Amino acid sequence: MFTKAKNIDTAFRHVRSLTLVVIIASATLCCFALFKSYEMVQAAHSKVYILANGKVLDAYASERKENIPVEARDHVATFHRFFFSLDPDDKVIQSNVVKALYLADASAKAQYENLKESGFYTSIISGNISQQIQIDSVQINTDAYPYYFNCTASQRIIRATSIVTRRLITEGYLRSVTRSDNNPHGFLIERWTTLENKDVNIQNR
Q1: Integer angstrom CA distances of residue 94 from 86, 97, 157
Q2: pLDDT tens figures, 123-170
Q3: How confident is the model at residue 29 (pLDDT cuts 50, 70, 90)?
Q4: 189 in the same domain as 114
Q5: How far apart are CA 164 and CA 143, in angstroms?
Q6: Which residue has the higher pLDDT, 57 or 123?
Q7: Taking Cα atoms as reference points, which of 138, 146, 142, 137 lies closest to residue 191?
Q8: Is residue 58 in some structural domain?
Q9: Domain count, the chain
Q10: Which residue has the higher pLDDT, 56 or 132?
Q11: Which three-class secondary structure state does DSSP give residue 77?
């Protein structure tokens, strides 16, 4: 009789141990499944599809801090392209300047007003002059806010009789603002100044 009781007790211990193992394994499996499901949902939310030229492209969202240097460089380059790309057409000049001024503060507006008052844009139109710019480098310092930048570019001033190449160096600071259609990067250029703007080559046509 005692032997049977002992066997029953041993069997009960085995069943209890097996049950505990099954419960722990099931709980671990459920937690793992929930974790993987959460990862998949997060990945799905960060993935978007872009339709470009009839092709579907994958894109992934990321934190802005990871893209600040890239976006900042493109913002500075875009501003300079709009501000310094000129053709002998008043509407083209106005369109480009307006787009540029959305990306900068009053320091850029002041430079535009100075150029306008000096007759710079009038001479561009009357002399059938085109001005093109190529951005050579944009250096961004993200260690301190607002972010300091230094931009080096080459200008080509195309006249009827010559092509003048100028070296342009500017600097300023970038402040974060709300993104919009007119300012998709969400930066505003402040304290923008020209450090150097001089002729480096003149080519006769």
Answers
A1: 9, 5, 18
A2: 999 999 999 999 999 999 999 999 999 999 999 999 989 999 999 999
A3: confident
A4: yes
A5: 37
A6: 123
A7: 146
A8: no
A9: 2
A10: 132
A11: helix
Are 138 and 162 in contact by the 8 Å Cβ rule? The answer is no
User: Within this chain, do residues 80 and 169 fall inside the same structural domain, yes or no?
Assistant: yes
Domain annotation covers residue 197: yes
**Sign (positive/negative) of CA torsion 172, 177, 180, 184?**
positive
Residue 157 dihedral angles phi and psi, to the nearest 5°: -105, 110
Please report which confidence band the pLDDT of residue 22 belongs to, taking 50, 70 and 90 as the band edges: confident
User: What residues make up the domain containing 26?
Assistant: 2-48
**DSSP conformation class of 130:** E
Beta strands in 53-129 (DSSP E): 55-60
Tokens of 163: 């092509």
Judge if 42 and 81 occupy the same domain.
no
Least confident residue range of 9-13, 81-85, 141-145, 185-189: 9-13
Residue 200: CATH number of its domain: 3.10.450.230
Longest Cα separation, the chain:
120
CB distance 85 to 96 below 8 Å: yes
pLDDT at site 2: 45
C-alpha atoms less than 13 angstroms from C-alpha of 150 in its C-beta half-sphere:
5
Query: Which tokens hold the place of 116?
Result: 């306008």
